[in-house]
Amino acid sequence: MAHLGSDVAAFVDGQMSESAMREASTHLDTCEECARAVRQQRLLKSRMSTVGSPEPPAGLLASLTSLPAEPPPRERWWTRLGRALPLRTGAVLAGASVAVVVTAYAVGGPEPAVGDVVVPPFNRYAGNFAGASTAQTGHVIPAAAMDALDGKGWPCHPTLAGDLHRVGGRYSDGEEVVALRYSDGRATLDLFEQNGHLDRDGLDGFEPARMGAADVWVRPGAPMLVTWDRAGTVYTIVTDADRDQVERAVAELPSGPRDKSGLSQRVGDGFSRMAAWVDAA
Ligand SMILES: [Zn+2]
Question: What is the Å distance from ligand 1's center to 29 Cα?
Fold first, then answer.
């Protein structure tokens, strides 16, 4: 059989005929290239399904982000709003509905508890760190694939903290974990990324710490372990680098305060503009 090519997504979603699925499975047993494409697709898919809140309707978002900053003179705000938004069931009703929707998105609350609660295998990570020959097991992620993963929810930065260069990456633990190794020739830093939320009860020997703006858990020692979760991904660092260097690395990964960002920030901006209009009415 030929390579899966554009059928990779259909295969992962199980949207091929039974015979085609069988054929594809057989092919995957012998074709590392396609197997890799399937692993990457699975990772991306699982990543997408655990990212934040649902998208509001595109039309609503477009309307909110295009609202002018200043209220128009001599026109009641809701009249104007009714015209600006794609809701035509009467200006006041439209305003009220939109306000409810926007408030729901803007207020949001803490990050939704999506994904599984996980305990990374800290001791195994630490053990692998010491035994250089078996340090990294699992399928190699080619550089091009790491670049593709980077920015899609799986940070695979080419460098961390300035001097630490990415020297390799693998899918490990049944392809569920992205495992990256960095080195500056002196210090080594292993970074593990997996879906889920950190199980606070599984943090034996860890103490809460602050690294830059991030709340993390640190297990001192050689190697030192640092773990935290953000937006449905658990990050674990195993390293013999200086703490300063580690702090810089953490700051370059998703680790900031859990405040409004991205979509909710944009919607929040729209909400602020609406509020300004209400004040002006
Ligand atoms: Zn193939």
Answer: 9
Note the pLDDT tens digit of each residue in 40-93.
888 877 766 655 444 455 555 555 555 555 544 554 544 555 555 544 444 444
pLDDT tens-place string over residues 244-265: 999 999 999 988 776 544 455 4
For residue 101, how far is its CA from the centre of ligand 1 (angstroms)?
A: 46
Q: How far away, in angstroms, is 82 Cα from ligand 1 center?
A: 54
Amino acid at 76: R
Tokens standing for 48?
Answer: 């997408």
Query: Could you tell me the distance, in angstroms and rounded to a whole number, from the CA of residue 41 to the centre of ligand 1?
Result: 14
Ligand 1 geometric centre to CA of 20 (Å): 14
Residue-range domains of the chain with CATH:
5-49 (no CATH), 58-110+261-280 (no CATH), 117-252 (3.40.1000)
- How many angstroms does the Cα of residue 43 sit away from the middle of ligand 1? 18
Å from CA of 268 to ligand 1 middle: 46
